[in-house]
Amino acid sequence: MTTEETKKSEEHSIFIGGKPFMNYVTGVVIQFNKGANEVTVKARGKFISKGVDVAEVSRRKFLEDKNVSVKNVSIGSEEFENKEGKLVNVSVLEIVLKSN
Amino acid sequence: MTTEETKKSEEHSIFIGGKPFMNYVTGVVIQFNKGANEVTVKARGKFISKGVDVAEVSRRKFLEDKNVSVKNVSIGSEEFENKEGKLVNVSVLEIVLKSN
User: Which of A41, A47, A52 to mutate to test the interface with B (most CBs of B within 10 A)?
Assistant: First the structure.
């Protein structure tokens, strides 16, 4: 990927964390309103449930006019070092939303 | 579906709830060890993160010999009546694991 392509794909990803729920929904909606064809919702560990909620609420309540569907959902595991320096696994989820 | 088919598909589903994590992992592993080709992990709302963890831990730590892969992941929403009698939406997740 070129730098420009990397930047574009990052711009169209929403990483779910500890901020208020509606921040992320707004993030998804803004991407589509700015003309993105696809937006990816990414979440890890305990934020995965919130990620599914963000994708569903964005799609069903705020993007009805854009007819946004779930293009793909994938799960996996990532290894990372915790505070104690131990390698642990965390589950990851990616939801690709697509404007039709 | 015949009664027998319904029974079979239910037997091969694991519904994630508030029981200890390893109960569900054991449930998935037992299904495969009994000869199931596919096992579906189903979760709603706050249990979705746990569902992804159950699928990933079962697959990666306990079913290495069976070479189990993620066949499909789907998300959606279900309407249900809460304690106050109000209709609310809850996100749902289904992960189909397949023995290769």
Answer: A52
- Contact at CB, A49 and B53, closer than 8 angstroms: no
3-state secondary structure of A6: helix
Reported ipTM: the value is 0.86
Domains of chain B: 3-99 (3.30.110.20)
Q: How far is CA A90 from CA A8, A22, B2, B48, B56, in A?
A: 26, 24, 40, 14, 9
The CA distance from B46 to A100, in Å, is: 29
Under the banding of pLDDT at 50, 70 and 90, the label for residue A9 is low
User: What's the token pair of residue A92?
Assistant: 């990851």
How much is the pLDDT for A13?
96
For residue A93, the chain B residues in CB contact (below 8 A) are 52
Closest residue to B48, CB basis, from A49, A76, A77: A49
**Per-residue pLDDT tens for A10-66?**
569 999 999 999 999 999 999 999 999 999 999 999 999 999 999 999 999 999 888
Tokens describing residue B47: 């249990």
> Reduced to 3 states, what is the DSSP secondary structure of residue B94?
strand
Of A45, A47, A75, the CB nearest to B73: A75
